[in-house]
Amino acid sequence: MADICVLVTRPEGQADKLKSLLEEQGARVEIQPAIAILPPDSWAEVDDVVNRLEEYAYAVFSSVNGVNMFLSRLAERGFGVETLNRCSVAAVGASTAAELERQGVRVQIVPDEYRAENLAAAIVEDVKKRTDKQMPVKALLFRASRGRDVLKPQLESVGIETTQIVVYKSEDVLNPNPEIVEKLNFGAIDWVALTSSAIAQSTINMLGDALRKVKIACISPITAGVVEKNGFTVNAIADPYTMEGLVEAICFRGADIVRDIKG
After folding, report:
1. What domain range includes position 205?
2. Mind listing the pLDDT tens digit for each residue in 127-178?
3. 143 and 67 share one domain
């Protein structure tokens, strides 16, 4: 894999895991953040919820960023993670669940397939099994300032009273590093790794047709759909939808493609 170079587009400070996994397989790695993760414009909505977490039967996290931002704010307000453990905690996937557990939060619900639709279905099934019949059942969703609005309507469609709060902002990086653009144009980069829909769209906006010179790997079919909607070809999709799955897709399933291109 030493002849393959992968461009990682994760936010600043969040590329290390994917970079290390790729380098362990012998790939070379370049980094160009496509989005920036920032605190919300105001913590007022979050602080209001912190004061009444006991009202909610479910606390639902759809990203590691959401976990870190909310738990950080919880600590700033003087609350421990045990406050959150009064809820049934749901996580969209293994990475999100692992971060919650690492910080001392018990996770009760993780879907078999790491998609918002599957997370909503798993919560609905859990509600059906509840022995307490307190109604309405309330769920609290922690989310970014943008992204697919899937969980809230699905939960509300079955009568779950759902509150959605923004715990971090996701903003596009507008100007790429000129050296990265030069390497793309000269064929020095083989793959671009895209780990979310927002990252995919921002990468396309930022790099444009330079992406047609490389192969594109996506962490999920949802992310791949964003790429294809913009007229680009997706060459590999992770299975499972994790960093490890993405590395496998690039380094093992994609290696033959790159060798064919390079002759």
Report:
1. 5-34+173-262
2. 888 766 666 899 999 999 988 788 899 999 988 999 999 999 999 999 999 9
3. yes
